[in-house]
Write a structure and sequence with these properties.
Blueprint (H helix, E strand, L loop, with lengths): L2 E5 L2 E4 L4 E8 L7 E7 L6 E7 L5 E3 L7 E6 L4 E6 L8 E8 L6 E2 L3 E6 L1
Parallel strand pairs: 2-11
Antiparallel strand pairs: 1-3, 3-8, 4-5, 4-9, 5-6, 7-8, 9-10, 9-11
């Protein structure tokens, strides 16, 4: 059974940095695309960044380009989201997800990121 466990969230001041981790287990993830999503109160969940597990092709939402970096460690079966220059509008619950089709099939439980002004 696929399991995704996020960690690394917390409270940080504007301009600060956090690194989120997503530990993946339950199968081999080659062929998967891994994504980071976020959902702020009263807003729809949105994708922040994604990476293909095999070759590491990345994509980012316009709102985080140049500030966030997604990466993966094949040996550790872990996906990271390095978040720099954080803004109050980055405050949200961040979720890790995995897919092999057009739809993300597997989700973590989420980790809270709060950026104070």
């Amino acid at each position: 059974q696929v399991q995704l466990v996020e960690s690394g969230g917390g409270l940080v001041q504007t301009g600060g940095s956090l690194r989120l981790s997503c530990a993946a287990s339950g199968r081999t993830f080659s062929g998967y695309t891994m994504g980071w999503f976020r959902q702020a109160p009263g807003r729809e969940r949105e994708i922040v960044a994604a990476i293909t597990w095999n070759v590491g092709i990345t994509s980012y939402a316009d709102s985080v380009k140049g500030r966030f970096t997604i990466s993966r460690d094949n040996a550790e079966n872990t996906v990271y989201l390095q978040m720099n220059s954080l803004k109050p509008e980055d405050t949200a619950v961040y979720y890790c997800a995995a897919r092999t089709t057009r739809r993300y099939e597997y989700w973590g439980q989420g980790t809270q990121v709060t950026v104070s002004s």
